[in-house]
Design goal:
The structure is a homodimer of 428-residue chains. Chain A is 34% helix and 26% strand. Chain A is of the alpha/beta class and 428 residues long. The first copy, chain A, folds into 3 domains: 158 residues, NAD(P)-binding Rossmann-like Domain (Rossmann fold, 3-Layer(aba) Sandwich), CATH 3.40.50; 162 residues, 2-Layer Sandwich (Dihydrodipicolinate Reductase, domain 2), CATH 3.30.360.10; 84 residues, 2-Layer Sandwich (Alpha-Beta Plaits). In chain A, the strands form 3 sheets. In chain A, strands 7, 8, 9, 10, 11, 12, 14, 15, 16 and 18 form a 10-stranded mixed β-sheet that branches. In chain A, strand 5, helix 4 and strand 6 form a beta-alpha-beta unit. In chain A, helix 3 packs parallel to helix 4. Chain A is elongated, with a radius of gyration of 24 Å. The mean pLDDT of chain A is 94. At the A-B interface, helix 5, strand 12 and helix 11 of A face helix 5, strand 12 and helix 11 of B. Chains A, B: Keywords: Amino-acid biosynthesis, Methionine biosynthesis, NADP, Oxidoreductase, Threonine biosynthesis. Chains A, B: This is Homoserine dehydrogenase. Chains A, B: One of its GO terms (molecular function) is NADP binding.
């Protein structure tokens, strides 16, 4: 075993800065027997003001040059993005047989299989605990602790920004745009929030977890993605009246027909751990055939937690462990067969805006019955300035295609003022 | 790396049987590249009726002989007990340089440091994921995922039998003895339930977690242990009236003064994850300085989950990872300095039985004030056949010594019919 592992860190943002601080505070970080020390760093702007000192490290303008430096034993990629310098630098390090630790969910979700194959061909670890749930070890749980089981489903809250926004909307009765602007001001949301609020970040993460859980290749393109940007305050309030909270739920399920990977707002019953996961917290259920149901909850982002996850991966590299990047050897990983979302069976929430006139409810009920959708609960509530009467109903478990067809038919009814808003109810 | 790892299993009870079934169903169990196959087994009674086939394995009457067999590469110890054949066999395997996987919490809690030193001196892994929380990977989380952090506290529900009993008492309004008898009939509790209901099993487990969390030697003798056998149905009901549920909480906390490892019944607020952990589930909070608070919940026992944890450890052995058994090298592990429990500060619940006469409450309040204990909530409730009036109060956070002194003084008041019952309120 090596005694000293020289770490090269590319990317000195929130996570990179956290890692520099951590290893500065613990210069003898040696959980596996050797010592890890940062020797080289790279970032976009050398002269940028930072609250940590990088003068003791070799500086590289080019992360690819850092990755190939002979003075770097472990390459830590904290640049981000599925293409460009992050990918080039990771590939360079792996081709040289160097262990790579990354927090880059997009890179692993999109190119995970080919990178794993490269890593395994040279016998170098490729670790990415920090890519999912920050400091909460979801990757390690699925990759290592669940190998003695078959996992059939993982589902949870994987984007802290979206959960913060939904919680704030719910608790402060403020609309999406207002809460988003505030989150941006507080640094909880990016200037361009699309990756987070569009659900794409959560989709990257659940794609990685699906691969680990089911032994298939990450298959980001197959994920069905909706974000929180279309969640209306009115639905949060009406869902609350029905005993639910709205959360952005990322899920991956496996059946005999294939795999379904989805991200969408969903209603979780108040009291359920997903509904009780508030603010920037993340949460995950793992369902294994032998182990049963495991729930894990913790901070999903932030400098400290994410840097701690990177440090744990560095420690894992130092143990010399040899295992497949994704639980099964990369060459055997195939993209999964995608299940048509229309076949998914679940409960749904439908919100209509109707004219205040007799016979409307009868017409809606008949339309639902025509396509075989049965009603579980029904709520009509006067709302000021709504320009009509909002009606909310939840259905019993139904194929999604039937609910969507019902929504189309209801939209065409003369007394219905706007296309129904459909939200799924989380399987819990 | 080896291609085939020959597994010797000593102990064919619930967990051993689960492991045999698992590896029979997955004959090519090879998550780390090699294949694991059982070649030899040992148990007390060869001819005992079993629902799995052991005719294909070499039989050993003596687990020590199994451990030393040249046809065994990994020794799996599922006998149990801190002394006797389990310890002898584990020592034998380690002395021969063989990796050991065990589910034996008593062995690790009592002899963990010396066994770790032996294992590290010969370079053989000693893994015990199944010893704590069954299939829920608490050990891996603390040993591997938290190395990039400093953990200051772990607390949770670590004994499924006790939690089952408390939940049943609560939901069925039945007394301890009745629920215990039923649990024994259903196989949820042992014929001799002392280890579980006395809190000793949970104390073994929290001793192991404390060692992993704080980088000290397991120090079982320093744990303060109370079980659930003294929990009365009346307290469950009264705690419920005050908004709490009673759980057996195992906790380990670290401060500048030392470490406190405790197991005792405690009140958790309804809605809190510990209060919402029902039946045989286990749950654990981990508090790290950087990562923050992680919560994990899952099945804590049972054949499938625990065997899956053993299989995951076998897989870890097959990766060739070299790391200290307890996060820091065994030679550096010292038993922790124990904090005097009387210095612990927390809220408490006191239940009194008093005569129905004027001035009693004043006398109790004055006594509490004398020792500096202030009251948070107060409940007086008529209870039939109680032989007096039960009064329940909860205190603000107070050093435990003060609460105990208050209880002593209250017991001496003329109008108080029985010594007060004191329960701690969980720090949440």
């Amino acid at each position: 075993m090596k005694n000293t592992w020289r770490i090269g860190v590319a990317g000195l943002g929130t996570v990179g800065g956290g890692l520099v601080k951590f290893l500065t505070e613990r210069p003898h970080f040696a959980p596996a027997g050797g010592t890890a020390v940062i020797t080289a760093v790279s970032a976009r702007d050398r002269s940028r003001q930072r609250d940590f000192d990088i003068s003791g490290y070799e500086w590289f303008d080019d992360p690819v040059a850092l990755a190939s430096s002979p003075d770097v034993d472990i390459f830590v990629e904290l640049i981000g993005g599925s293409e460009g310098p992050a990918k080039a630098a990771v590939e360079t390090a792996l081709r040289l047989g160097k262990p790579v630790v990354t927090a880059n969910k997009a890179l692993i979700a999109v190119h995970g299989r080919e990178l794993a194959e490269l890593a395994e061909s040279v016998g170098a670890p490729l670790l990415f605990e920090a890519a999912v749930m920050g400091g909460t070890p979801a990757v390690k749980m699925l990759r290592e602790a669940m190998v003695g089981d078959e996992v059939d489903a993982v589902a949870g809250i994987l984007n802290g920004t979206c959960n913060y926004i939904l919680t704030e909307m719910e608790q402060g009765s403020r609309p999406f745009a207002q809460v988003l602007a505030e989150a941006q001001r507080l640094g909880y949301a990016e200037a361009d929030p699309t990756t987070d609020v569009g659900g794409f970040d959560a989709a990257h993460k659940i794609s990685i977890l699906a691969a680990l859980a089911f032994g298939c290749a990450p298959h980001y393109a197959a994920a069905e993605v909706e974000g929180v940007d279309q969640v209306e305050l009115l639905d949060i309030k009406l869902a609350g009246d029905l005993g639910y909270r709205i959360r952005l739920v990322a899920s991956a399920t496996r059946s005999a027909d294939g795999v379904s990977v989805r991200v969408h707002p969903a209603l979780a019953p108040i009291g359920h751990p997903l509904a009780e996961t508030r603010g920037a917290l993340n949460a995950l259920f793992i369902e294994g055939r032998r182990i049963g149901r495991i729930f894990i909850q913790g901070p999903g982002a932030g400098s400290g937690p994410t840097a701690a996850a990177v440090a744990a991966d560095i420690s894992d590299v130092m143990t010399g462990a040899r295992r497949p990047v994704f639980q099964a050897p990369a060459q055997s990983l195939q993209p999964f067969a995608k299940i048509d979302a229309a076949h998914n069976v679940g409960k749904a929430y439908l919100r209509l805006l109707v004219r205040d006139q007799p016979g409307v409810i009868a017409a809606v009920s008949e339309t639902l019955a025509e396509v075989g959708v049965s009603i579980d609960s029904f709520l009509q509530k006067p709302v000021e300035d709504a320009g009509g009467v909002p009606i909310v109903l939840t259905t019993h478990a139904t194929p999604e295609a039937a609910v969507l067809e019902a929504a189309r038919r209801i939209a065409a009814l003369p007394a219905v003022l706007a296309p129904p808003k459909m939200l799924r109810i989380a399987r819990v």
